[in-house]
Design a protein that fits this description.
Elements (H helix, E strand, L loop, with lengths): L6 E6 L13 E3 L12 E6 L2 E7 L14 H10 L4 E10 L9 E10 L24 H13 L4 E10 L7 H7 L5 E3 L5 H7 L3 E11 L9 H26 L17
Length: 263
């Protein structure tokens, strides 16, 4: 039988902070071969589980999505013992039924980023990891069950298109994206691919903050921030209940992602 996960990491991109139980917090400053992560990594306890938290965009949200050092972030969390990563991200909706405030669990993605390093393996040994199913089934199932129980259900089985940013889409782009995706964001890739290369379980808890510009109304940062603030407490409750579940013994194959991927 697999052993329980001892350490779970949370990467926040939507105002998620303060998830730790009182009196449990300390900070780590980590160096990696790929440079510094977005900021200090906080360590604390959530439901008795050792939990790491990293603000994806840095303290004060100063790092734009195309400049996030995703390799350093994932590697730093792994070096501190993370065995699973749960991320929280704000996204735009490409579907009328996915209104602002909706929580979504994507099960697929399309990568339209342009200039980000996407792998740890730039030379030497080559690995071709499988991303046919990019998100951990254990984490996704646990998140779906937790959301339903708390009255904050996730819409499941949706496709996330990741764009470079930091600008928002043109109307033509937004209408094009609707032909193959359901939500749009700027931070999923390469975070999800790097987690697979480090053999980590990974799930994305997406929070819809706006209708993308296909709905004819331009996206406004003010609207996004207001929606995030309104739903932060709901996401806090979901994370607080989810993280102890995530620590259960895994049944997935994420830890074996590199077993057959090397050349």
């Amino acid at each position: 039988m697999n052993a329980p996960r001892r350490t779970v990491a949370v990467i926040g991109g939507s105002g998620i902070s303060g998830i730790f139980e009182p009196g449990t917090t300390k900070r780590h400053t980590v160096a990696t071969p790929w440079g510094a992560p977005s900021g200090p990594i906080e360590e604390g306890t959530v439901g008795g589980v050792r939990t790491l938290f990293l603000a994806r965009h840095g303290p004060g949200h100063t790092i734009p999505p195309h400049r996030v050092n995703y390799r350093a972030n994932v590697d730093a969390l792994r070096s501190l013992g993370a065995e699973a990563i749960v991320t929280v991200s704000s996204v735009g909706s490409l579907r009328e039924e996915l209104a602002p405030g909706t929580f979504v669990l994507p099960n697929q993605f399309v990568d339209l980023t342009k200039q980000r390093p996407t792998t740890f393996y730039d030379g030497g040994r080559v690995y071709h990891v499988s991303l046919a199913d990019p998100f951990c089934p254990d984490l996704t199932k646990a998140a779906a069950e937790t959301g339903r129980e708390l009255g904050s259900p996730f819409v499941e089985g949706k496709t996330y298109v990741c764009v470079e940013g930091p600008r928002f889409s043109t109307r033509a782009e937004s209408k094009f994206f609707r032909s193959f995706a359901d939500i749009i964001g700027m931070t999923l890739v390469p975070e999800v691919t790097l987690a697979r290369e480090r053999a980590l379980c990974y799930a994305c808890l997406a929070m819809v903050t706006d209708y993308d510009v296909w709905a004819e109304r331009p996206v406004e940062t003010k609207e996004i921030l207001e929606t995030m603030q309104k739903n932060a407490d709901r996401m806090h409750r979901v994370l607080s209940a989810l993280l102890p579940r995530v620590a259960a013994p895994p049944t997935c194959g994420c830890a074996h992602a590199l077993d057959e991927a090397g050349v």
